[in-house]
Amino acid sequence: MHSDKNNPGTMKVALSALLLVTAFIFHASAKVVNVSVTVSTTHAVSFIDDLFVGVTLGSGLLPTSQHWKGLDFNSPKVQALAKGLSPCYLRIGGTGGDNMAFVPTGHHRVAGNQVFTGATWDAINKFVQDVNWKFIFGLNVLKRKEGHWDPTNAKELLQYNSAKGYKLAGLELGNEADIFHGAYNVTLSPRQLGIDVLNFKKLLRSTPGYETTLVIGPDVNVGRSSAYVAEYFRAGGDRAVDKISYHQYYTSGRTAHLSDFTDPKLMDTLVSYIQTGLDVARRTNPLTPIWLGETSSCSHGGAPGMSDRYVAGFLWLDKLGIAARMGLKGVLRQEFYSGSYSLIDTGTFDPLPDYWLTLLFKRLVGDAVFSVKASVDSSTIRAYAHCTKPSSSYGYAPGSVTMYFLLPTNNTTSIKFPQFHGQPVDVFWLTPVGGLTSKKVRLNGKLLALVNSQLPRLPPKTVTSGSVTAPGKSFGFIVIPGANVAACKKHTQSPIIG
Q1: Model confidence over 68-77: pLDDT tens digits?
Q2: 59 pLDDT above the threshold of 60
Q3: How high is the pLDDT of residue 207?
Q4: How many other C-beta atoms are found inside a 10 Å radius of the C-beta of residue 341?
Q5: In this structure, how many other beta carbons lie within 10 angstroms of the beta carbon of residue 336?
Q6: Angle between helix 353-364 and helix 76-84 axes, rounded to 10 deg
Q7: DSSP letter at 457?
Q8: Angle formed at CA 316 by CA 343 and CA 354, multiple of 5 degrees
Q9: CA–CA separation, 451 vs 97, rounded Å?
Q10: Among residues of the chain, what percentage have pLDDT more than 70?
Q11: What are the DSSP E strand ranges found in 140-260?
C-alpha cells in the first residue's frame, strides 16, 4: 500500500478536515454565558412618553457666517431622518447662545455679540414644522443691565416669533451659568440667576401667545454644582421652572478611551448623578419633571472616532434605560448634527449607529417601565424592560413587553425568559460592521442604510427556540408579543407627562 502524503488532492482534503476540526474546537471552547431574565410586571416603577428621547443642535450653528455648518434642512435625507424620530423635542442651546443676539433683518450688528437673523429663525421653524418636532430655545442670559438680566433682545425675538405665527415649546435662560467665570470671566451667582429666571417667567406669562411655553432650567451639571442648583431654586428658580434640566457627560472627549464606552463602572456613575439631581430638586420641587436636557457620551464635542461610532451605543442605550427607570421624563441627545457625537454624518447626512438605536427605541419602547432581575450581575449583562409601544410600524398588541440589553463583555450570551417559557420572541439586534469603531451597523445581520433617501423597513427576527444568543460587545431589543402583561393592557400609552 503506497502513501498519498505527496498527493496534492489528498493534502487538500486533510487540510480542510483539520480546519473543520479546529473551527469546532474553537466554537466548543468559546465561553457562552447563560442568563435568565425576569421582569417584575406587577407594577411599573415609572412612566415615560413619546417625547422622552429628544435631540439638540448647538447655538454655534446659528450665526449667518456658519451656514449651519453644512446642515441642509431641505435635504431629503435630513427630512426623512428627522421625521423618523417624530414626535421629538429639538433644543437649540449651548455655550454659543450666551454670546449671541437676535437681529430681525440682519442689517445691523450688536456690539460684543454674535448675531442670528430673522432668516435663520425662519429656517429652523420651517424645519421643525415640516418634521413635526417641538422647538426649545436657549436665550442669552449675559444680556445684562445694572446686574440684572436685560429682556430687551428677548422681547424682540418673541415679537418676531409671534408675528410669524411660530410655536415655541420651551425656552431656557442661560447655559451652564455655573462656569461663566472660566468661560467669560463673568460670575453669575445662583441667587441672581434664580431671580432672573423668575422675572423671565413673569414676562413670558404676561406675553400673549406664551402662556403655556415651558420655562426650563437651570441647565447646569448638578454633579459638579449641586450647591449652585440648590441656591438657584431657593432664590426663585423653584417657582419659575416647568422642567428641571441637567446636563450630563460621562467623561471628556479629549481624554476618553475606547474601553470607557463599555465600562459598566462608568455607566453606573449615571445612577449617582441622577440621584444627586433628584435629591436637590425634591427639596423645593418634588413634582417638577426632570430632564437630561443636554447629554451625550463625552463633553467637548465628543471623542473623535468613538462618540459617533457603534461603540457609543453602549453608553447611550444604558443612559436611556437608567434615566427611564429612575423616573426622568426627558433625555435630549447632544446632538442631532455636528460634533463627534452626531446622530447623522456631517459630510453625507447618512445615519450613524446611534441614530438607528434611537429610532428603534422610539418605535419599540413604551411608557410603563419595569424592574428587571438577571441571574448574573450588571457587569455581564445590563437589562431594561418596558411595555411595548403601540406602533403602526409593528402592530404589537397591548400586553406585550419590550426589553433591551447591553453585553459589555466579550462573552457570547444566551438569554432565557423563564416567565415567558415557550413563547416566540422578536429580536432587533444591532452589531457593527468591522468592529466597535465602525460607522456602519447591522440589524439581525443585515446592513442598515437609507433606501432612496428614505428609511428602510426594520423587520425583526422571530426566535422560537426559547433563548436568544448574541455575541459579546453588542446590544439590542427583544419584544415578547404574547407576554400578556396586565399592566401593559390597561396602560397602553401615557399622555404627555414629561
Answers
A1: 999 999 999 9
A2: yes
A3: 95
A4: 28
A5: 26
A6: 40
A7: P
A8: 30
A9: 36
A10: 91
A11: 144-145, 148-149, 170-173, 214-220, 243-252
Nearest in space to 431 (alpha carbons), one of 389, 477, 363, 362: 477
Beta strands at 243-252 and 214-220: parallel, antiparallel or unpaired: parallel
Would you state the pLDDT for residue 491? Answer: 55
C-alpha to C-alpha distances, 56 to 200, 262, 305, 341, 343, nearest whole angstrom: 23, 24, 20, 11, 10
Q: Does the domain made of 48-368 have the CATH classification 3.20.20.80? A: yes
Mean per-residue pLDDT, 401-427? 97
In tens, the pLDDT along 180-189 reads 988 888 999 9
Cβ proximity of 52 and 330 under 8 Å: yes
The pLDDT value recorded for residue 112 is 66
In contact, 296 and 341? CB cutoff 8 Å: yes
Same fold, 32-45+369-490 and 48-368: no
What torsion, rounded to 10 degrees, do the Cα atoms 448, 449, 451, 454 define? 100
Domain ranges within the chain, ordered by starting residue: 32-45+369-490, 48-368
Residue pair 121/64 in contact (Cβ under 8 Å)? The answer is no
In one-letter notation, the amino acid at residue 211 is E
Instruction: Taking residues 13-31, report their average pLDDT.
Output: 37
Do 311 and 262 contact (CB within 8 A), yes or no? yes
- Whether 7 has a pLDDT exceeding 80, the answer reads no
User: What's the pLDDT tens digit per position in 181-224?
Assistant: 888 889 999 999 999 999 999 999 999 999 999 999 999 999 99
Q: How far apart are CA 475 and CA 322, in angstroms?
A: 15
CATH annotation of 32-45+369-490: 2.60.40.1180
Give catalytic residue positions: 176, 294
> What does DSSP say about strands 382-388 and 365-374: parallel, antiparallel, or unpaired?
antiparallel
